[in-house]
Amino acid sequence: MFIDVAITLLKIAFVFGLVLNIAGILGWAERKQSAVMQDRIGANRADILGLRLFGLFHPIADIVKVITKEDWIPPGGDKFLHTLAPFLALFTALAVFAVIPFGDTLHIAGRDIPLVIADLNVGILFVIAFGSLGIYSVVLAGWSSDNKYSLLGSMRAAAQVISYELALALSVVGVIMAYGSVELDDIARAQGQYVLGIIPYWGVIAQPLGFLIFFAAAMAETKRTPFDLPECESEIIGYFTEYSGFKFLAFWMGEFIEVIAVAGVVTTLYFGGWQVPFIDSQGFFVPGLFTIPLPHLLVVVIQVTAFILKVCFFCWFMLLVRWTLPRFRYDQLMGFGWKFLLPLAFLNVILSGVIFMSFEG
Amino acid sequence: MPTLVIDDQKVTVDPGTTIIQAAKKLDITIPHYCYHPRLKSVDMCRMCLVEVKDIPKLQTACSTQVRDNMVVFTNNQKVLDARRSVLEFLLINHPLDCPICDKAGECMLQDFYFQFSRHTSKFKEKKQKKHKVVNLGPKIVLDSERCILCARCVRFLKEVVGTEELGIFDRGDHSEIGIYPGRPLENNYQGNLADVCPVGALTAKDFRFACRSWFLCQENSICPGCSTGCNVLVHSSERSYDKTLRRVYRLTPRDNDEVNQSWLCDVGRYGYHFVDDPDRLTAPSLKRGEEYVKVDWDTAFREVAQRLRGIFERYSPSSLGIIPSPQLTNEDLYMVKKFFNETLCITNIDFKLPGWNQGQGDGFLLKADRNPNTMGAELLGLSGIGPQAGEIIEKTRLGEIKALYLVGSDPARYLGEEKIASALSRAQLVVFQGSNYNYACKFAHAILPGATFVEKEGTFTNAQARVQKINQALRPLGESLPDWKIILGLALTMGYYFPYKAAEDIFKDIAREVTGFSGLDYKKVGDKGIKLALSGG
Amino acid sequence: MKIVGHKLSFLENIYLFEIVRGLVITTRHFFYNMFFHIAHLLGYQQDVEAAVTIQYPEQTIPVSKRWRGVHRINTRPDGSPRCVACMLCETVCPVQCIHIVAEEHPDPAIEKYPVSFEVDVTRCCWCGMCEEACPVDAIYMDSGKIPKAGYSRQDLVYDKETLTKEVPLPGYQRSLNPPGAGAPKVNPMGL
User: What does pTM read for this prediction?
Assistant: First the structure.
């Protein structure tokens, strides 16, 4: 019993340590990547004893700055909810990682350790549920700020998130149909199959349209460009205008954690999760030809690394999208969600149903 | 009555008038240096040459008397050429240092050069070097190189003051203005020399290098130095973004034939420094224990009103004493009278502190009574309704008067510090209202900062019973307010409302209620003032 | 109003391909620049620029000879400022950033000198009119400097000592009239 709790705590420490660190580095990556994409150099001035390290100290400097800033609550605002909102944002974003499997079951010392913090049988529904809960932080932040523009910003954000939730959930239906389970571990495991013997049966192969819809809707859920109307750092007042200091940082971190969460979910649903093509518990193999056995621990390490690399790739890709596409206008945003993505998601469900039925038949 | 034509305009003047005066009637200004309307003409500068028909040579406008049917040209080519030549001569030895000359911007040489000459110098020889920065006395500095030897200064001291300290020494281009050895300028009117000098030769030490003339704003006012009430211009500036530069820079006389002609005595001229003195009171403050705490006006009014009411309730109106100052305007004094005497029925009001009019007069402009509004205070009835101001202080010492309200007055100056200390320390409440700190403030329980004469509008009544207007030149320093506004605010806090928005409204009531002022109109007081018709006065 | 534009084709209209096209462009820039950044780090391909930015305080771009930088005050041979406190620069300054306090100079030939000469560079609009107005060539803007940031407003109000210590950027100095006792060569009255 005690050892189970210890193992779970260890997994939590591993996942959260990883996620929070990547989130911190994303702050740096966003600056540097945008700079490199735009033929600039990017932030490189923060130094410790003359060591600049490509501006890697900027996140540290940011945190020092943000922590020493005044934590200001609007005099007319709701003190409790104003404080609660940013932590809710962090919590809902982090909670998603509880169900994301980051590796195959680890057999060690006679124990079977599934490399997922909580192998819930509702899996993907849990992810979507916590994605929806994120709206609370937005609405509470806007409302408790005692600023009508913040409130309007939060309404805008809530409308957007709720609108895209539909398309998001519907696009996942296709994946559930393809793998016959809502449990993420099952989905990841099922992606270890091969189509025609050599093509990995990843979600993106089974659900190409579903992937596009899911990715677009998930980007909108994270409230990042081109869907960053709720925040609009400089132009329209967003829901966290009245936040400063560490609470502002919490929103900021929450956004990056959401990015990682989306990357993790996309990886799990559509890009094989921790699966590496042609490597399974038996070792490296070429289908139908030969198999080179690999030690179990090495395979698990390769798989976990592969998962992390896939997540990093999607983080990079989302930054790339953010620095490539301009922002939607609000009517375009709602039109895109309701008139394009949602019908497309329905179409995808029907098409998937028809195809899978015909294959089974 | 000779009628003449100047530049095609007909004008009829008195016999004996000079061309320059006749031209002035037509608003034609003939350029001049040595001519001054209040000094005798000497034809020294030759700047005012004009052509008179049928006289072959040009004539000096300042000394040529008009004849009937005279035809004068002040602006034809011949005259302009002559002016140009005269300017060329005057500028031969001039150092041309306008940028560092204090007169620049108000220098007649500079003005007329740009207006009429704009020549390039043909003078190839070496310029004559003369004395620079010569101390003529405690207040005036001479730069001989800039002097054009118009002798206005010499004549002013001879004809107006009569002291004749200055003279012209040496000959030809060595001529210089100077003082006689061992006899520096000491008279009380030397400040006028800087005004009288048309160029940058004589400058006032008080104003020297303090400010360029073009940064100054001018506002008509009255000198608060004595009961003559000389008309002055207040030169002030708030030119820069830096508020510390808000300052009055100088007072200069303003023409008024009835009062001060064109002159101003040094006592009045240099007496404005209290306006920007560091001892100005800038915020209402209340005594808390031994400390003074700066508060806002509302708090100050509430505290003073509450304590005054407390004394009223415990004693009677006769336990209050008010000592206003004849330095205040008619409007301020009227408010004192109206509120304290007529509304609160206090009779212990008097402004005549012992020795209040015992200054040193000089028989010309400076009067022994150094208060600009004694006559006004007298006419408004701020004396003789109760005990004398000296007695009020004495009664305070004896404890008969519990509360003393000082409006701008400085009793310690007349009665000595000891007497004031023994009297004021007995009082239960001392309110000081005024612009500058004085000894009585030490004992005040409440200090209400008042505005000075440059910071408010109003009227003074001088010793000849002439009502003259002062205008606001600067915003009041800090939070200070015009005295009438302070009393208005205090009255309102105590529950009495007076419908006054501006000094003009109060003046209307003065004209309606106070005998002597009856029938006066604030607008008609104008720049030169109106003399009151006093019966038996 | 005339709207210039082209009708979107079907492929453009569904955005997806256009989005991919945009992503391709940015990705190309990313990898091109990344390649040269890494190459520079390893010491290769130094002649190829991977970024167009300039690392400002260490690197500067040369400015025009007429470029107006932070003010400086020229000095007389004895080191005192040439300024005669005539306040013409203060007068002509459109943003009132110059503030001079004049005082009597012990030498009657100089007569006037600035006790304090302050230029508030936060207000300055770099128009150079003070240079033109100065009758004694005292104030020049040829230091070639951009004002440094300061921690307070007062840090950016340069006083007489600071301005006197400024030196012209080599090769940029404006011509100076022969030093005299503050005497203008071209006098303001044109005589």
Answer: 0.74
